[in-house]
Amino acid sequence: MRWSAVGAVVAGAAVVAAAALTGAIPAGEPLASAPFQGEVTPDQQPLACPGQVEIPVGQIESGDAALDSGSDDVAYDAEGEDRQGAGAGFTTGADTGASVERVGGGDVAGLAAAGCTAPSQEQWLVGGSTALGSSARLVLTNPTEASTEVTVTYYGPLGPVDDRTVVSVAAGGQQDLLIEGVAAETAALVTRVTATGAGVVAAIQDSRLDGFQPAGTDWVVPSASPARSLVIAGVGSAADGAETLLRLMAPEGATLDLALLTGEGAVTWGGVSALELEPGVVTEVVVPQVDAGAITIEADAPVTAAAMVRVPRAVIDGPRDAQAWDLAWSPAQAIADGMPRSVRVGEHTTAVVVYAPTVGTFTLTDASGAEVVSRTLSAGTVASLPIDVAAGTELTGTAGFAWELVLEDSPGFVSRLTPRRTDVEPIGVDVTRGAYVEPS
């Protein structure tokens, strides 16, 4: 042992002497080895919300309030403790956060709600359109202390879009871009966002016009990563004339079965058994109208999905045959992990829609553990449960159920808030061995 130590000292002295003569430390040979792929669990993961909606064409004043693009009737509610600004959005150190905005008139009239989410290295946003009269504004927020590089890939009804977007987002900063500038005339969008480092928080503002009339605005938040079994809760509306569309995309293609469930069980839905999806092609399916339901998706390969409900409302100033709308997106959830989920209540929350894959009792509790609502459900059924709690209340639901908060307000405004897992999720890292000093 003593001789080994002496030999190491002599060898080290020789290296130092060589460095003194040449003026540089000898470069090591590159080490050939496969990168190590592992996970790191951070102490905490700050959440971020995108902020307020923007008018795609900008603020235009015509002299006639009925034709102006903007509105003076705007109420914005941001919820979550320890909020800090991040661009036009905000971060929160709490387990949950949310923003709800009500715009009473103009091009983006309606309710737009978004739950704050943690940064992720990969996320799938199922929703939005860049067809004529529509705008899809992607908002990237970085709540971490390190900058990140983000790559955005787009999919449409014809498959993957050729162009991609690469953008850097500074620590604590925010970037936004109009997808119509990259993927124009794409009626049905699915957007994949990947990021380096600790990741990024992504959301899409989906805003639409039908002629001169507002056709709805809402935030598209991440759906569950592509999986073989998914559930979408909060589907449908009791409003007369409401319409629901299901949007699907399988990166590698898939064959799947769909089912629509209500309080009475399965609803007849023709043509959705053994439905085939081409790789990377965005597909939309009309959903039978129900007051409150859930969609289950069972596929032989990973798929991602979301559902959109559109609610018509009367036009106060406009032609007699004009129609205005609002819309709400419900992302797919993967509930097989058996983890409870929580959400921050926003203004205009009226109910929770719950889907039970098996018989059981669903209970919502607040942060103190007090019961807010509880219901025993049969397997494969849905319940819509009215709730009346103050905005800012954090609610946690029983694990194993898919559920969603319903937001409604007159004259036909709608939105949704989706619960999230509040445990700190690990971040994937790749570690590669290399020489201490790279060859010059």
What does this structure look like?
- This protein is mainly beta and 440 residues long.
- The chain has one helix at residues 2-22; strands at residues 36-40, 47-49, 74-79, 84-86, 89-92, 98-103, 110-115, 122-126, 134-141, 148-156, 159-160, 165-169, 174-178, 190-195, 201-210, 213-220, 227-235, 243-249, 254-262, 265-267, 275-277, 283-287, 293-313, 324-331, 341-344, 349-356, 360-365, 371-377, 381-386, 394-397, 402-409, 413-417, 427-431.
- Strands 17, 18, 19, 20, 21, 22, 23 and 24 form an 8-stranded antiparallel beta sheet that branches. Strands 8, 10, 11, 12 and 14 form a 5-stranded antiparallel beta sheet that branches. A 4-stranded antiparallel beta sheet has the order 13-9-15-16, with no helix packed on it.
- It starts with a helix and ends in a 9-residue tail after the last strand.
Number of helices: 1
Stretches where pLDDT is under 50 for at least 5 consecutive residues are: 1-22, 60-64
Work out the oligomeric state of the chains in this entry.
single chain
Number of strands: 33
Q: Approximately what portion of the residues adopt beta-strand conformation?
A: over 45%
Helix content: under 10%
N-to-C CA distance: 36 Å
Overall pLDDT, averaged?
88
Major pleated sheet: 8 strands, antiparallel
| C-alpha geometry | globular
Short description:
This protein is mainly beta and 440 residues long. It has one helix at residues 2-22, and strands at 36-40, 47-49, 74-79, 84-86, 89-92, 98-103, 110-115, 122-126, 134-141, 148-156, 159-160, 165-169, 174-178, 190-195, 201-210, 213-220, 227-235, 243-249, 254-262, 265-267, 275-277, 283-287, 293-313, 324-331, 341-344, 349-356, 360-365, 371-377, 381-386, 394-397, 402-409, 413-417, 427-431.
